[in-house]
Design goal:
There is one protein chain. The protein is elongated. A six-stranded antiparallel beta sheet has the order 3-4-5-1-2-6, sandwiched between helices. With 256 residues, it is an alpha+beta fold. It has eleven helices and six strands. The longest helix is centred in the middle third of the chain and has 18 residues. Helix 1 packs parallel to helix 7 and helix 9 packs across helix 10.
Length: 256
Amino acid sequence: MISNPNNDLFDLLNALDNAQDVPAAWQAGLRFFRKFGARQITYGFERLDGSIVFLTTLPDWWLSHYQDNNYASYDPLIDIARAYIAPRKFETPFTDFPVTLSPKARQILNEFGETESTAGLVIPGITPMPQQLSALAISNTMNAEEFSKFYRGKETTLILAAHAVQQRCQELDHQFTQTDVHLMLQRIRHHPKLSPRERECLLWLCKGLRNDAIADRMGITRVTVEMHLRNCRQKLNARTREQAVVTAIKQGFITP
């Protein structure tokens, strides 16, 4: 049982200050989150080359299975980390998931439940680049109701602890290239970049403007607006303009 969350957080911060490398900082984080009932703990970080580094307690069989099947390209927990700023709960099997699940993502989430991860929390990190992935996830074998009750009132402490662990690990090795911690590299699909004009068109569309009004605001022709919006649909794999707007918001290209 947790005697005093504030004392535990204070002890974690001291341990992180004293950590001289990523393994030591990671172990300090593991001790803290295990006090809070976490069975599995994973930190994901996207390097500049687009590869994903995982510091994790997940078993080797899962990591091998994950990498062999290129799951990083479909992982719904990665989508949560990219789409949200605030922490988001999840459960396996899924019932009320915060992002739309493809059949592949449903399969991943169901299989993930076999790692003693039936309910969990994804805590996005703070990175210099908006689209860069940095998030810490904790999970255990509780059901959704038990999980919510257990962590009620502890969310702020967990967020502060997660950010502290992430920040210290990045300070010690900002690209995670010189650590002996078990890491797994996996190339993840990159979301296509939208041009500044394309983002602006979507933003005005999000605000309810029609093509003529968007063209007038931007000082371009209606045909050019239509071209930009068509490009947005293609890049975001969206069937409609409305779907393109929603996808752009979720991926952080625009803020309504």
